[in-house]
Task: structure prediction
Amino acid sequence: MQQNQISMPLEPANRRVFPGRQVGRGLLTSSLLLALSPSFALAADASERSALLPWWGWAMALFLTTFVIGVFGVMAGIGGGVLFVPLVGSFFPFHIDFVRGAGLFIALSSSLAAAPSLLKANLASIKLALPVALVASGFSIIGAFLGLWLSALNPAYIQGSLGVLILMIVVIMILSKKSEHPEVRLTDGLAQLLGIGGTYTEGTTGEEIKWTVHNTIKAMVLFAFVGTLAGMFGLGAGWANVPVLNLVMGAPVKVAVATSGFALSITDTTAAWIYLNKGAVLPIVTVPSMAGIMIGARIGAKLLPKVKPSLIRQMVIGVLLLAGIRSLLKAFGI
Amino acid sequence: MEDSRFENLPAQKLYGELLGKLVNVGIVLLFVTFVVYVSGLLPPVIPMEDLPKYWVMPLNEFLEAAGSPTGWGWTQRLGAGDYLTITGIAFLASVSMVCYFVLLFAAAKAGSKIMVAIVAAELLLILLAASNILQSGGH
Result:
């Protein structure tokens, strides 16, 4: 493995401020500050905003925010990364480079947590995920380099194009429809060569569903594009994977959702390593976010049967719309 | 051939079980190392109270100001809480790689050349991304 030399001497910090009992108060304070404080809203400069809370206050605020994202993300049927990057990138003081690094690990941890049970239930298909992941992960490496290069030129490029992308995702979420069991009359040569297909048991009826796919080459071109965007912005790509697998390739919607989740565990791995090796992963930003999203997603999954998914979905679309506009405004220094 | 297409990959359950176990180990590792970091059991290189000054910086500026290593340089600083935490993060970024090696052997055993090729190509991509070879070439 290639290693870069370390030139700086190690100087461990001995002065420490222990959060102790203040953590509980900080939890409340940080969320209140985030939600209500006019000074927070007006602190346009990241350094000014950063000084509004101590380090542990930001860590707690991040945990709370990602917890809520986890709950609502699962209920709205989207991954956490797509909400995390625009929201945290717009409203927290962290530089967008670290937010995108954390975003990839959030998407990665969510998919890693869900994949084992989806694979064991035969809802996620390795045969379907293999070509998808290969194409998307190859292009996510290109996307990761492109994103870091653009950000080094001017972070506003990334912030602005992120805003545009989020607004596009909003449009996709509003317009996209799902097909429970799309009809695949004639499969294509590549799908035949790869033997893509499978069987799963429909939980509601107990029926054995056999499925296969078509339009594989067309879908691979789309996955190349999606992989580039995922690496570039640190987003999960469930918002795009599911429609492509379901509507373009003709996989049943449950297989599409599960396979997309599993494929992300591979796709995001490659881009995540690029960010980690570049030094763009700060543990204080990444770990509370991963913890918040994983706990939130588990609670969201339990609440799922009790809520109206369409209402949650509309709420999430509204939040994404605001986050997209905010990202665009931030790019123009507004 | 037509019937076999609807059969799920025999290695799928093994992959799921192995992934589940590795992810659980990763989560525990992440939690323990993060507690060590924020509790100060192992002092970090960047003092906690100075973090708000660093996390607003663009990446290149941060790396210079913090003297932070890139690539696998973090492994030489495992005595510091902040770098120790990266162990858990890196572990979670590696679990799919381990599962893909298992899948590679399963595909080879089943004699599926196309699957061996796809799995091997994916493994190569992940190893390339993890090795830092691409980054070094880019400098």
Q: What stands out?
A: The beta strands of chain A are 197-201, 208-212. The first strand of chain A starts at residue 197 and ends at 201.
